[in-house]
Design brief:
Layout (H helix, E strand, L loop, with lengths): L11 H27 L1 H8 L4 H36 L6 H12 L3 E4 L5 E4 L1 H49 L8 H22 L5 E3 L9 E3 L2 H58 E2 L11 H15 L3 H52 L6 H14 L4 E2 H18 L15
Parallel strand pairs: 5-6
Antiparallel strand pairs: 1-2, 3-4
Helix pairs in contact: 1-3, 1-4, 1-5, 2-5, 3-4, 3-5, 5-6, 5-7, 6-7, 7-8, 7-9, 8-9, 9-10, 9-11, 10-11
């Protein structure tokens, strides 16, 4: 726009240049307003049942849009009047030039203000108001259209995925009230349904404006709630997959658990039997007590089987993991108990083997019949083969026999490791 004339009269050449410039400006404004009128976002806003911040801001925007067309009509009237006046004469007089100056460059355009009161503005002031109002309306239209273009379609896709997952979850017993993931599915379903309705009714509530941008529509859709729902759905999917895996492997795992506990029970029974044998055959030996089967583990195994029958997979999964760990520990405890109670028998067997080994060596040398060797051998053998066996006395007897055998063995033979007999 040319600057305000300040009361000065434009020349004929200045009038012609102003008419050409304002005509181009008028045409650009008309194109922008028509584009705004036909914008898909505007048509959606006009036809939607809005709520919240969008309804409030769109109501103001509609009033602004109406004023924009009023301002444009004022510009149109002024431009047409100026063109008609200029066309009257090839060489307009001073009065015509003064009138043209007022229309094109002065502050004589009469418009209705926001409060309903009339005011006079220059062409440049009126264009500035239209530019500001147009940007405000376009900002709302673009923001609403961007949200509607982005979120509902994504919500619909996630909802379709949610329905498929719900069917799968239901088929494996993951239902509301029966499994936490079923409750989560119900919650996410409600969240997505509510979110879609809110996005359709109040899109501007889901718009994050770019504070650093002055261009209309600067910003992005707020997808925080959608993103949370998508993450929750991923968590539910993993849980359902885990349930399916538990459902698939549960019977095999239960069979293995039964086998582990059965082996542990049999080992404990063997340990109890061995303890009785040890107490009967070994004297002066501390034999540890042997506990009975772990009734708590058997009860929990029965509970796990019940969970499987009732498809309570979310309860079965952690219970199986705990049972598998504890059943392995129970079998190791049973084996350790058996080893502990049979240790005296193993000691007696080792002493018998050592005594026989030395007896065979001295026999090969033809010295087994020597009185001292024969006496000490008979003493050791009597202690080792008499029940109950005194292990300490038998060990000392074996050591004395070793010492005596070492004395009569050939000088080149080595005495086996065993220690010295008590005096």
């Amino acid at each position: 726009m040319a600057p305000d004339s300040g009361g000065q009269v434009l020349s004929r050449e200045e009038v012609d240049r102003a008419l050409a410039r304002l005509g181009a400006e008028h045409e650009a404004i008309e194109s922008s307003l028509l584009a705004l009128q036909d914008h898909a976002g505007r048509r959606l806003l006009e036809g939607a049942e809005l709520s919240g911040v969008t309804r409030e801001r769109w109501a103001r925007a509609e009033r602004t849009a109406t004023r924009l067309w009023t301002y444009f009509d004022t510009c149109t009237d002024a431009l047409e009047t100026a063109r008609e006046l200029r066309d009257r004469s090839r060489f307009p007089g001073r009065d015509d030039l003064l009138r043209l100056s007022e229309l094109l460059d002065g502050g004589r355009l009469l418009v209705s203000g926001e409060g309903g009161q009339a005011e006079r503005l220059s062409w440049s002031e009126l264009v500035e108001r239209m530019t500001t109002g147009y940007a405000e309306v376009l900002d709302i239209v673009i923001a609403a259209d961007a949200v509607w273009s982005a979120l509902p379609a994504r919500i619909d896709m996630l909802s379709a995925e949610l329905r498929r997952l719900s069917e799968l979850a239901h088929s494996v017993g993951v239902r509301p009230g029966a499994h936490p993931a079923g409750d989560d599915l119900q919650q996410v379903t409600g969240e997505l349904t509510g979110l879609r309705a809110e996005v359709i009714a109040d899109p501007l509530a889901f718009w994050i404006a770019d504070g650093g941008s002055s261009a209309p529509g600067g910003g992005r859709p707020d997808t925080a709630r959608y993103d949370r729902a998508a993450r929750a759905l991923d968590d539910i999917r993993r849980e359902v997959d885990a349930v399916i895996q538990v459902r698939k492997d549960a019977e095999d795992r239960l069979i293995r658990l039964r086998d582990l506990l059965s082996r542990a029970d049999r080992t404990l029974a063997e340990a109890r039997t061995a303890r009785g044998e040890v107490l009967a055959k070994i004297a002066a030996s501390e034999v540890p007590a042997v506990s009975g089967p772990n009734s708590a583990l058997h009860e929990q195994l029965a509970t796990a089987a019940d969970y499987r029958r009732r498809s309570q997979w979310h309860r079965l999964s952690p219970l199986l993991e705990s049972l598998e760990r504890r059943a392995e520990e129970e079998l190791e405890r049973a084996r350790a108990s058996l080893s502990a109670v049979t240790a005296p028998l193993a000691v007696r067997a080792e002493l018998r083997g050592r005594l026989d080994a030395y007896r065979a060596r001295v026999t090969r040398l033809g010295k087994a019949g020597e009185p001292m060797l024969a006496e000490r051998y008979d003493q050791a053998r009597r202690l080792l083969w008499t029940a109950p066996c005194d292990l300490r006395a038998a060990e000392n007897a074996v050591l004395r026999y070793q010492a005596a055998a070492a004395e009569v063995l050939a000088p080149g033979e080595e005495e086996p490791v065993g220690g010295r007999a008590e005096p």
